[in-house]
Specification:
Length: 296
């Protein structure tokens, strides 16, 4: 049943996860408008839900507006790749009390970009969506998704009724950090070695790299929060196993000749480490190696 509380949402970045989020928002009764430079048009995306029991196709119709044609935006979902966030946000006008949901890998990509009266809600998802060609996206796993950061907004329950496994996290940091570590290990290693996620569990040399990356990341997070359990290896290995056949988003970016999200993921850890006087030699090496594969 559609719910008027959701109102109108604009979305920047109707890619794999952005399109899935737009679909759930639309199911919940929100009006969704995509924002993208270029001529206004209607975009049709076919979402193919591939569960163990059935395959269903659900079309997503998205009106796309150029940023200058958009009225001041009061509800914005940012799901573009992190390197493009600042430029994309600079092109739109937000209302003074706008709500912005950030549903991206990594951390910090919108830091300092919102005005004091505007609200940032952080989103973290373990759902997996793959491109299936011809404008089709294959939803391979609908997993836990958390939104959080301050009090739960009035529209949240209406959205959660249509978004499987969406929950509000009073403290969004633990799910964010768990996802960050998985991305900081799986994404660069799969991109550099050009392998699907599961291959990391099959090669001794890659297991050694995984262990070093996890240990360095855990050391930073444990310094930032002494309550951090600092035992992330098994959880990262579980993500690799659960997404074994997947091409990670960073491997896909390298294949597409695009810049990657390495700065918002491993770069964020390196920045925190520098502030704490810690050295992360494996992350430093891996960041340099990924940058060497990116276009100039
Ligand atoms: O989030 C991912 C990504 O590819 O960005 C993982 C968890 C590694 C799944 O592929």
């Amino acid at each position: 049943m559609a719910d008027k509380r959701l109102g109108r949402w604009h979305i920047i970045g109707a890619g794999r996860i952005g399109s899935l989020a737009a679909h759930y928002l639309q199911q919940a009764g929100a009006e969704i408008l995509g924002v993208r430079p270029g001529p206004a048009h209607r975009r049709r995306i076919e979402l193919v839900f591939d569960s163990a029991s059935a395959i269903s196709q659900r079309p997503l119709e998205l009106p796309i507006q150029p940023p200058l044609d958009c009225e001041p935006i009061s509800q914005l979902l940012v799901a573009c790749k992190t390197p493009y966030s600042a430029a994309a946000l600079a092109r739109v006008r937000l209302t003074d009390d706008a709500t912005v949901v950030r549903l991206q890998n990594g951390l910090g990509s919108l830091d300092g970009l919102l005005a004091p009266g505007q609200r940032l809600i952080e989103g973290v998802t373990a759902s997996a969506v793959m491109s299936a060609g011809d404008g089709r996206l294959r939803v391979v796993a609908e997993n836990a998704t958390f939104f959080g950061g301050g009090p739960r907004p009035a529209w949240f329950d209406a959205l959660a009724a249509h978004w499987p496994m969406l929950a509000w996290a009073d403290d969004i940091r633990p799910p964010q950090w768990r996802k960050l570590i998985a991305n900081a290990v799986l994404n660069p290693l799969t991109a550099l070695h050009d392998v699907p996620n599961g291959a990391l569990l099959e090669r001794d040399d890659l297991q050694t790299e995984m262990q070093a990356l996890v240990a360095e990341a855990d050391a930073v997070l444990a310094r930032l929060d002494p309550g951090w359990p600092a035992d992330s290896y098994d959880r990262v290995a579980e993500v690799a196993s659960a997404t074994a056949a997947n091409t990670s988003s960073m491997r896909a970016d390298i294949h597409a000749g695009a810049i990657t999200e390495i700065e918002a993921i491993n770069g964020w850890l390196l920045q925190r480490a520098a502030e704490l006087g810690l050295d992360l030699p494996t992350h430093r090496r891996i960041v340099a190696a990924v940058h060497a594969l990116e276009p100039d």
